[in-house]
Amino acid sequence: MSYPKIRMRDRRKDEATRKRFRETAQVSASDLIMPVFVKEGIVKRKEIKSMPGIYQFPLREVAVEARKIYDLGIPAVILFGIPKYKDEIGSSAYDDNGITQEAIRIIKKKVPMLTVIADVCMCEYVSHGHCGVIKKKPETSNQKPEFDVDNDETIKILAKIAVSYAKAGVDVVAPSAMMDGQVKAIKGALVKNNFPKIKIMSYSSKYASSFYGPFRDAAESPPQFGDRKTYQMDYYNSDEAVLEAKLDIGEGADMVMVKPALGYQDIIYRLKKELKFPLACYSVSGEYSMIKAAACAGWLDEKKVVLEMLTGFKRAGADKIITYYAKAAAKWFKT
Ligand code: PBG
Question: Does the predicted model carry a pTM greater than 0.90?
Fold first, then answer.
């Protein structure tokens, strides 16, 4: 096939014509999900050093913040709780009066129309900062200190966390620990406890990424030893991301996810093409901080760069975009 007469530049000559030929719908606030950090035991919001403009909120400010987000046209938040006390097994994560549970309750009471998603993981709640419980290995005198996360013990705790969020009134749980069988365990526990309607947005294809650096400041959850490569995905792989998502769909996930987003648009594209299933991408903390830093230095036009990036995620196939720029972008869409 050839198109000898088509002059592509005719389509680009003015904004009205460019708009007529657009293949991707403009990103709107309704595509976005705003992450919200809630910290136990603080009285005033605290800006995260490595993420200027993003805060840890005290419980008493969370409803007002949720209202602002909702009023901007953003339909959902994803909550991360930071508890006062951490232990080896993350017991504060499934405490029915824990920080995340309280935040869910307050938001659902004050801003009922806002969808509340809660991250289901252990890393913010455990003293060692890993996403699961650590296997106890028999110690011998010449054995190197090794660690491994106990997959099957961890998914039992993740299920308890999810049920506890459900009791508090959460709409969607988002397991992010990258343990095998976590979606199945959570789905089973939700159904057993009479919460069959709670949806699961699975962090199905989550890579071991250095772009999470600033988040670990925000959620106060850096691993105290080792790293997360024994459970998060190796970024050399792409087929594996598809397989992970398929497994989660089989276990009962309602939406799958690619994380990070910026260096992983090929993965977003593949998942959408091959699975044709609701898909979110998570533009992570490091993606926010890079742009913010360059914008603060006057090196980039923040607004234009962010809108270009978000459109890229949508063009690649993401239905929903989790981004720390959600609020800012929603304001930009209005102007
Ligand atoms: C794990 C979790 C992490 C993020 C979201 N959920 C951290 C990690 O896996 O290391 C990272 C989000 C970001 O960097 O913005 N509970």
Answer: yes
